[in-house]
Design goal:
The chain is mostly helical. The chain has helices spanning about 1-20, 30-35, 60-75, 80-90, 100-110, 130-140, 140-155, 160-175, 180-190, 195-210, 215-220, 225-240, 245-255, 260-275, 280-285, 290-300.
């Protein structure tokens, strides 16, 4: 259980770093031609979205997940005010990419809004994608986990689709940590109040696509950041590659678009299922923040 919880967090971070170089390149032929098959962590090319980053670093999604992990470790649990203060401090002078949700949230804080009112109206799944540290801390207390996941998501992405996604993904991952296979966990949680309306359609579309070619499936859903596209894509990848974390995360990157947010979620779920041995050791060795991540995980677990 401890191994799988650690793997859940490490795989989520590794997935973000793997996507760093190709992130937001939508033309899959361009990824193949300019970068090649992305099966290792790479320094981003100069003409991509993260030119200030180096091999083994994170996109702005992974950076925010690291802030969340550090906040939980230093505070002894999730405290929204602490996370908000650390988040604001982190982005003071940040040289990486700032997406619209981050910019709007910073503007909200500058206008005097608290973390319960600061969030953008973005539907981007990235706000829910950084929750692996929360699940590590609260996997045995589902009520606190759901409240915390919702609060941290709404701080930057105050949209019902993203907040709902955070709850759904937290519940799925906890079910997986209890030993349920990811596909079955998605089905189980979907029937716990998530089958209605548009959100249920997102889940169904992902499940129904499991046998399709990944690039074609994700192209059909849409490669971009919004939950209506990203959540079905996450479900497709999770179910299609249920026993193969490495291939899931590589194919995610090669499918283009917002591969970082998708990858963080897929890595989280499959890491929780398959454990640390499923993560290529070279990916972990190349993670620049591996040591502080592991130290903070030990601090959170009290070991």
């Amino acid at each position: 259980m401890t191994d799988n919880r650690e793997a859940m967090v490490l795989a989520s971070f590794a997935a973000d770093s793997l996507a760093l170089g190709a992130h937001w390149i939508y033309d899959t032929a361009e990824i193949e031609g300019q970068i090649g098959r992305v099966d290792q962590l790479l320094k981003p090319p100069a003409n991509t979205y993260h030119p200030t980053k180096d091999k083994g670093e994170f996109t702005h999604y992974g950076d925010q997940a690291l802030v969340l992990l550090e906040s939980i470790a230093t505070s002894g649990g999730f405290q929204i005010e602490s996370f908000a203060a650390n988040w604001r401090e982190f982005f003071n002078g940040y040289t990486g990419y700032l997406d619209d949700a981050t910019k709007e949230t910073l503007e909200g804080f500058d206008a005097g809004k608290g973390p319960d009112k600061s969030g953008s109206t973005s539907t981007d799944l990235g706000g829910a994608a950084r929750i692996a540290p929360l699940i590590y801390r609260y996997s045995d207390d589902l009520d606190v986990l759901i409240d915390s996941a919702g609060a941290q998501t709404a701080m930057t992405h105050n949209h019902s689709q993203v907040i709902r996604s955070a709850e759904f993904l937290a519940r799925v991952t906890c079910e997986v940590l209890r030993g349920t296979a990811p596909g079955a966990a998605i089905e189980t949680v979907a029937h716990q109040g998530f089958k209605r309306g548009d959100f249920g359609a997102f889940i169904s579309r992902g499940l129904e696509s499991a046998s399709r070619d990944t690039r074609q499936a994700i192209l059909g859903f849409g490669q971009h950041c919004g939950t209506p596209s990203a959540l079905p894509s996450v479900i497709h990848l999770t179910v299609r590659y249920e026993d193969d974390l490495q291939t899931a995360l590589i194919e995610n990157v090669m499918a283009g678009g917002d591969s970082a947010a998708r990858g963080m979620v897929v890595g989280m779920i499959l890491g929780a299922y398959l454990g640390r041995a499923a993560i290529p050791e070279q990916w972990l060795s190349d993670l620049q923040s591996r040591q502080p991540i592991e130290v903070q995980l030990k601090q959170i677990s009290g070991s």
